[in-house]
Design goal:
With about 220 residues, the protein is an alpha/beta fold. It has five helices and ten strands, in the order βαββαβββαβββααβ.
Length: about 220
């Protein structure tokens, strides 16, 4: 049974800092120096452009973004434009998929299934929409999935909206999908669950879906909040 290190990162972690950490982890996992790892964290307000992003899916100019306190960055994951910020649980699995199933489709569905099982623990029915990635509840998107894979080592991952600033979502066309609204656990449950609890339940769901042993680690990120 594969082992996975689940790392909880405290504070708000700068997006570019996390990109560098993922790249270092990817190299270490590929060389066998590091076990497969999932990082759990929150970012400061950041809009990211995936490899397939269209510029007009950002609905605000640079001055407006600066006024809102939101950074705009290009990234190397797949997909279109998305938002990360406080109140959103982000998970970045850096996995050697050869230990599971070396298939992009299998991996995407496994990440979605992890979210669906987490939602089920709150009595919510998570749904897939065939032409898209991510997870919806009642036709509203609660979790986005955007990944990168090279030589079957994964990075990037998924994000679950717990109680982020929903005004920031108005700055973009989320994932380039114009007719699918975004929702949060705060809205769906009438009260946001504690972030630590969401991470706990996500780790449990991940362990079930990926049939792995879990090692848990917590690290502080001074200077990144």
């Amino acid at each position: 049974m594969p082992s996975v290190n689940c790392v909880r990162m405290k504070g708000l972690v700068d997006y570019e800092t996390m990109m560098e950490r993922q790249q270092a982890a990817r190299g270490a996992v590929a060389s066998g120096e590091m076990t497969s790892t999932v990082f759990f964290l929150e970012h400061p307000p950041t809009i990211t452009l995936g490899r397939n992003a269209l510029a007009d899916h950002v609905l605000c100019d640079s001055a407006g973004l600066a006024k809102a306190g939101v950074r705009l960055l290009a990234t190397d994951r797949g997909g279109d434009v998305t938002y990360h910020g406080p109140g959103q649980m982000v998970a970045y699995p850096v996995l050697d998929l050869n230990q599971w199933t070396p298939s992009v489709d299998w991996y995407l569905r496994a990440l979605e299934e992890t979210v669906i099982r987490l939602l089920d623990s709150y009595g919510l029915k998570g749904e897939r929409i065939p032409e898209y990635t991510g997870v919806w509840v009642n036709g509203e998107k609660v979790a986005a999935v955007g990944i990168a894979i090279k030589k079957w080592i994964s990075w990037h991952g998924f994000a679950i909206n717990v109680n982020p600033n929903m005004e920031h979502w108005r700055l973009i066309v989320p994932c380039g999908i114009k007719n699918k609204p975004v929702t949060t656990l705060d809205t769906l449950l009438s009260k946001a669950p504690p972030m630590e609890q969401v991470v706990d339940r996500c780790i449990t769901a991940f362990q079930d879906v990926f049939a792995c042993d879990v090692i848990e680690t917590t690290i502080d990120t001074p200077g990144d909040d």
